[in-house]
Request: fold
Amino acid sequence: MIPTPFRVLDRLREGRPPRPDEVRAAVAGAADGSWSDAQLGAFLMAVAIHGLDAAAVRELTLAMLDSGERWDLAADLPTLTDKHSTGGVADTVSLVLGPLLAACDVPVVMVTGRGLGHTMGTTDKLEAIPGLTLEHERPAVARLLARHRLAILTSTPALAPADRRLYALRDQTATIRSIPLITGSILSKKLATGAAGLVFDVKTGNGAFLTDPAQARRLSEKLVETCRGLGRAASALLTDMSQPLGEWAGHTAELLATFDALEGRGEPDLMAVTSALAVEMAALVGRPVGEAELEDAIASGRAREVFVRWAEAQGGDPRWLASPRFELAPVETAIEAPRAGVLARVDTRQLGLLLAEAGGGRLGPEPIDFGVALRTRARLG
Reply:
C-alpha cells in the first residue's frame, strides 16, 4: 500500500526518519501531482531539518531518477564521462573541459543548468553563440557523441521530472541548502544520461554555493557515496572559489575566455582546475590522460576544432564560429584601489551579484544582457 501524504507527514512531524517507501511516495506525488505544494513543502522542510541517512538519500535519488527516462549512454560508450560543478564566478571550466577531453578521445556528456543568484549558468553562456541549441533527446545526443565525442545539453522534461517541481519548491521554502536534497537533485539528472563515471567539482570559499569548507566536504562525500551506492564510478575535487576563477566574468566575456584557453592563452587558475578535473575524469573511466596529452590537444588546435565542430552540430552559426565576434557592453568603468597594497580578500559572491544586478545575470524574469561583463585584474596576494 502506498503511504498517504498525511501518514508520511505525521511520522515526520514526530521526528521519525522517513522509510524508503515514504520517500518514494513523496517523489511520486511530486511527479504525478497527487501531493499538493503544501504537503511537498512540509516534506522538504522535515528533510532539511532532520536530514536523511545514506539509505534514504539513495532512495530519494533513485526515486527521482525513476520518475523519468534513463538513457544509459555508456552502454555504447564505456568510457563516457561527466562532470558537475556547484558553481561560482568566472568559472568557464565546463566550456574548456568538454572539448579538451573529447580531443583526447575521452567522450563527455554534460547536462548543464542556468544561472542562479550570483553564479552564471553554462546553458546561458552557450546560448550567447548564435543558433546554438541545447535541448536534445537521446538519439541526437548519441549521434553527437559518436561523431564528436561531446554533447552538452540542458535538462529535458523527460529527465528526472520530479526534480523540476521539487527544486522550485525548495527555492520557495528555503530548503535549497539541504545536503540530502542537493544530492538527490544533482544525481537524478546526472545519472539519467548514463555516463560511466562522474566527477564533482565542489566549490568552497566565499564565492561558493556552500561557503563553509566542512559543508562543502560533506556534500562532496555524500555525492560520491550515493553515486557509488547506485553502481556508478564517482570522485570529487574540492576547489577554491575565494576569488573569481578567471579574469573575465559574464556570458560573452566567458566565451571569449574559452576561445583564449582553447588557443593556448588560458588563465593559470582556470587551466589548473580544468586540467585536474580532466585527469580525474579520464582516470575514472579507465582511459588515463596526462598533462602532456592535454597540453598537446590545445597546442595542436584539436581542442578548439572539437569545440567548433560540436557547436556547429548543435546548430551554432558556422560563419560566427569561424570568426567569433564578441560584443561587450559599450560603456566601461574602471574601479581602482584608493591606495597601494596587497589584495588580502575578495568578496566573490558580491562581485557575482553586482554583475547580475547590472543585467548580466539571472535575478528575475528580465532577459540577460550577454554583453555585460566584469574584469577583475588583481589576484589574491
Summary: The chain has a mean pLDDT of 92. Residues 213-229 form the longest helix (17 residues). The two ends are 62 Å apart (CA to CA).
